[in-house]
Amino acid sequence: xxxxxxxxxxxxxxxxxxxxxxxxxxxxxxxxxxxxxxxxxxxxxxxxxxxxxxxxxxxxxxxxxxxxxxxxxxxxxxxxxxxxxxxxxxxxxxxxxxxxxxxxxxxxxxxxxxxxxxxxxxxxxxxxxxxxxxxxxxxxxxxxxxxxxxxxxxxxxxxxxxxxxxxxxxxxxxxxxxxxxxxxxxxxxxxxxxxxxxxxxxxxxxxxxxxxxxxxxxxxxxxxxxxxxxxxxxxxxxxxxxxxxxxxxxxxxxxxxxx
Length: 259
Prior knowledge:
It is a single chain. The protein has helices at 56-65, 132-169, 180-207, 212-221; strands at residues 38-42, 49-51, 80-97, 104-123, 173-174. Strands 1, 2, 3, 4 and 5 form a five-stranded mixed sheet that branches. The longest helix is centred in the middle third of the chain and has 38 residues, at 132-169. By secondary structure, the protein is an alpha/beta fold. It is elongated. A hairpin with a 6-residue loop joins β3 (80-97) and β4 (104-123). It is 33% helix and 19% strand. Residues 1-27 and 233-259 have low confidence and may be disordered.
């Protein structure tokens, strides 16, 4: 039985501190006037790192350590798995400036990161490149890579537009009344809402190819699944090389977008 899972805990927020050039839109500001806030947005999506150094038993153990219930079931085996680890952050800085109506403060710049820190794809080292089982597992995990890629692109585009609009609406405040956390709150709220919706859609799209019917179809494609004959016992397995040999595996292909 082919199992594959994607993990993305977007709830974890880390601060990304950057120094950006202040907007030259205004050398002086007036409370209530546009702040000229500079927005820097990044949606990193590093190339997937395909790993072939863990056997089916090792992947099973790795998943069990992470608390996946299915990894403890005797009848089901994790033959490949895709991890897309998120990176989400919101940070910014204030600028204090004199103005015709007294000194004021404005949100000078905002930096938002909404993407993946790294993407790891494990293919059981039991499977020799060029075999039917290797191709089946590789292709299945590549579908997860594609799903994660176009789902991030979709949400990043929408989020960037929302953040741009917020930056355009940002106004300056009287000096002494400014609070960086309060002024960043609307940006963080937009990011949190996007992350929550992203988790739901991403999980749904990945789950659509992780059904028992889907696994059964993949399993029926090949007859060479237990190549190492070590799935139910400890011991050495034949390890696959660090990359597909002889160009036997096609590069990742995009999947049709789901409505």
